Amino acid sequence: MAAGIIGPLEYSREPPRNPSLRINAKEPFNAEPKRSDLISSYITPVDLFYKRNHGPIPIVTDLDKYRVTIEGLIQNPIQVSMDDIRNLPKHNVTATLQCAGNRRTEMSKRRKVRGVGWDACALGTAIWGGAKLCDVLKLVGLSNNTLTTTSGGRHVEFISVDMCKEENGGPYKASVPLKQATNPAADVLLAYEMNGEVLKRDHGYPLRVIVPGVIAARSVKWLASIKIIEEESQGFFMAKDYKMFPPTVDWDNIVWDTRKPQMDFPVQSAICSLEDVTFTRQRKMTIAGYAVSGGGRGIERVDISVDGGKTWFEASRHQKPGIKYIPDEVTSDKWAWVLFKTVVDVPDRMEIVLKAVDSGANVQPESVDSIWNLRGILNTSWHHVHVFNASQLPRSHI
């Protein structure tokens, strides 16, 4: 464990949070912003960024004593300080982090699943500042795009100071392939800033991993050590969680070893300007939300239907103001979401349906039934919202 960490960790020492967040669990604290708040800006304000935790928030009181150990299947294990990290070239990477359980509540309405009941806002986009992991690993002799070490290391494991009941009270762990960790183009960071400010405790102070384009469970917070290992991490959240099983698998017949840990996130989108059932007296209505895909794939289209999927039209997409969004171009943030907005006429009643297509021609599945899984992860089915024109309804229905 890195020096300077206070223990035992206690829920009585939690940091303050924005009162507008929707709290899905108090201990450990898990919360997301309101839909309309989420899309209020392209870069998500820190206090509105979703909070995903497995235990009390760690406290580092003496940054001068904080160290991260780099060890494992390498020749020269070392400990690095925050000054060592800050002395490396700094990079800013705009990336969307998304919990694999985003939109779980929709999936649980079909069949019961296990996990935090997230709505559609368990994600956010930030400008992460820090050192590239590939530069950090050069300190122990690993060059760019290394596939394996001389001692047989093929994966990089990140170990947190965060203690989790799922790990039998041990630290949170996750890993990525060594070839990804040492690839400069993968933009894997050891981040110490978020939106130009020092990381907040909720988001991993003083140092966290950012793995763009991958489910956020691999972006380990409160980093204590980096370990070069032969196989993927055997921590709970790699070996026995966050794996995608077919609808036929339940808790009686599950065999965890038959599936690889989930990494890239599929194409995803959601309507955030409206709730699941919305009543209105407006003649026109704005439909707005987000779309994002994993692996650095851009968003090629955002398709909207107001008649339940019978007919479709394309919504405009945007990222940074004043810069045209073109998927997979250098002018676009390849690790980040796009926002969309369109204005439609409001009939007596309408079923708004949303789906996105990424630059790899991957499209969201129509039904949640085909992707249902017992952990309720990766619900990327078409997003539905029902709208009723209140002026056309009996008062008893409003």
TrEMBL record:
<feature type="domain" description="Oxidoreductase molybdopterin-binding">
    <location>
        <begin position="54"/>
        <end position="237"/>
    </location>
</feature>
<dbReference type="InterPro" id="IPR022407">
    <property type="entry name" value="OxRdtase_Mopterin_BS"/>
</dbReference>
<keyword id="KW-0479">Metal-binding</keyword>
<dbReference type="GO" id="GO:0030151">
    <property type="term" value="F:molybdenum ion binding"/>
</dbReference>
<feature type="region of interest" description="Disordered">
    <location>
        <begin position="1"/>
        <end position="27"/>
    </location>
</feature>
<keyword id="KW-0500">Molybdenum</keyword>
<dbReference type="Pfam" id="PF00174">
    <property type="entry name" value="Oxidored_molyb"/>
</dbReference>
<comment type="pathway">
    <text>Sulfur metabolism.</text>
</comment>
<dbReference type="InterPro" id="IPR008335">
    <property type="entry name" value="Mopterin_OxRdtase_euk"/>
</dbReference>
<dbReference type="InterPro" id="IPR014756">
    <property type="entry name" value="Ig_E-set"/>
</dbReference>
<dbReference type="GO" id="GO:0020037">
    <property type="term" value="F:heme binding"/>
</dbReference>
<dbReference type="InterPro" id="IPR005066">
    <property type="entry name" value="MoCF_OxRdtse_dimer"/>
</dbReference>
<dbReference type="Pfam" id="PF03404">
    <property type="entry name" value="Mo-co_dimer"/>
</dbReference>
<feature type="domain" description="Moybdenum cofactor oxidoreductase dimerisation">
    <location>
        <begin position="260"/>
        <end position="387"/>
    </location>
</feature>
<dbReference type="GO" id="GO:0005739">
    <property type="term" value="C:mitochondrion"/>
</dbReference>
<dbReference type="GO" id="GO:0006790">
    <property type="term" value="P:sulfur compound metabolic process"/>
</dbReference>
<protein>
    <recommendedName>
        <fullName>Sulfite oxidase</fullName>
        <ecNumber>1.8.3.1</ecNumber>
    </recommendedName>
</protein>
<keyword id="KW-0560">Oxidoreductase</keyword>
<dbReference type="GO" id="GO:0008482">
    <property type="term" value="F:sulfite oxidase activity"/>
</dbReference>
<dbReference type="GO" id="GO:0043546">
    <property type="term" value="F:molybdopterin cofactor binding"/>
</dbReference>
<keyword id="KW-0349">Heme</keyword>
<dbReference type="InterPro" id="IPR036374">
    <property type="entry name" value="OxRdtase_Mopterin-bd_sf"/>
</dbReference>
<dbReference type="InterPro" id="IPR000572">
    <property type="entry name" value="OxRdtase_Mopterin-bd_dom"/>
</dbReference>
<keyword id="KW-0408">Iron</keyword>
<comment type="pathway">
    <text>Energy metabolism; sulfur metabolism.</text>
</comment>
